[in-house]
Amino acid sequence: MKNWHIDTLAVQAGYEPKNGEPRIVPIAQSTTFKYDTAGAIADLFDLKAAGHMYSRISNPTVAVFEDKIAAMEGGVGALAVSSGQAASTISVINICQAGDHFIALATLYGGTFNLFKHSMKKWGIEVTFVDPAASPEEIKAAFKDNTKLIFGESLSNPGTDVLDFEKFVAIKNEMGVPLIVDNTFPTPILCRPIELGADIVTHSTTKYIDGHATSVGGIIIDSGNFDWTNGKFPGLTEPDDSYHGLSYTETFGKAAYIVKARVQWIRDIGCYQTPQNAFLSNLGLETLHLRMERHSENALRLAEFLDGHDKVEWVKYPMLPADSNYALCKKYLSAGSGVLTFGVKGSAQDAEKIMNSLQLAAIVVHVADVRTGVLHPASMTHRQLSSEDLEKAGITPQLIRVSVGIEKIDDIIADFKQALAQL
Ligand SMILES: *Cc1c(COP(=O)(O)O)cnc(C)c1O
């Protein structure tokens, strides 16, 4: 995609209508695609030709969304799936099977944490969670012979911890495994993990990418940079019996990982994104650069207000100069994104009282859309975690997560001011 700036890619990439075609990408609401000969379809099944055949595996509308994100993240290809959870799942099982092990940061989103710790264990895949602040030596000590990857979030949900790219990229290079980065919170507008050394990027597109809370979705982007032929990834190099002995690295080169994820896992599990959701998520992408700017500006202003409030014990937002993540945020992100957490002086009940008193900010099990919302992770998104795991993830009973919207900041601050006054 031409040498455009990311703001232009957000608006233009992925779809180039020809003479007389619709200016806006049409919703290809069709499960299937017509070909003139049986042989043409046989070639598609054998992966000898590219083309759409069935919307469980690919679809023209979803392809536009995939191509746009691949361009924005700087990858060789992308695969859109039905949720962020599906993206995390496929990104791991594409290179990890029963008997394998991987490393994940302890600060992951609660849903991902459960998936890795409990569900993957039932499939025979073992995970070790590491403290993101641990030394390289401690992290390397968690590796085993069968360790296949490292998984982390560029900006963690809900703790807003920034990934130390330099440290983790050095470790994954030394250990010969890929680094998978969930880039949901910063989006490619604020952080581009591939430029920072990540090999695979995932998103819950449900969040800022859609941005309007209309569509659950996820996406996986392949940098094309990892060498899968280093002996650790036979699933990519050895013959795949379900495609007459085809080897993904031999046939698809740099795109081996992302092609395999689609033609093997999406074919078999069937969690592809729907054309309708891809259309809406693509519409969201068109304004992502504008929204991320405003979300970040508003969140910083609200963080500063809360920081100076006498009923607030602490505020965590990576663009506050006193924040423990400030240096990393300055280094890797161009702004702080729209999520902050704070602790009220008092108990979980006091946190609940503030939430119930808010009038503009709604209590929602969602984050990262245009409307300001609040959530109490300890009793909601992270309630399945043990108290020990909650502590490791930095989630206290007083913690309120705020997803700062793009309303006028004066109205958002006034709302928190009146709610805090009721304590
Ligand atoms: C929400 C979220 C997910 C899960 O995405 P869904 O679309 O809800 O399945 C994964 N990672 C992060 C960082 C998230 O915020």
TrEMBL record:
Molecular functions (GO terms): cysteine synthase activity; O-acetylhomoserine aminocarboxypropyltransferase activity; pyridoxal phosphate binding
One GO term (biological process): transsulfuration
Top-rank lineage group of the source organism: Bacteria
InterPro entries, alphabetized: Cys/Met-Metab_PyrdxlP-dep_enz, OAc-hSer/O-AcSer_sulfhydrylase, PyrdxlP-dep_Trfase, PyrdxlP-dep_Trfase_major, PyrdxlP-dep_Trfase_small
Cofactor: pyridoxal 5'-phosphate
N6-(pyridoxal phosphate)lysine: residues bearing it: 207
GO cellular component, one term: cytoplasm
Assigned keywords, A-Z: Pyridoxal phosphate, Transferase
Family: Belongs to the trans-sulfuration enzymes family.
Protein name per its UniProtKB record: Probable O-acetylhomoserine sulfhydrylase
Organism: Desulfotalea psychrophila (strain LSv54 / DSM 12343)
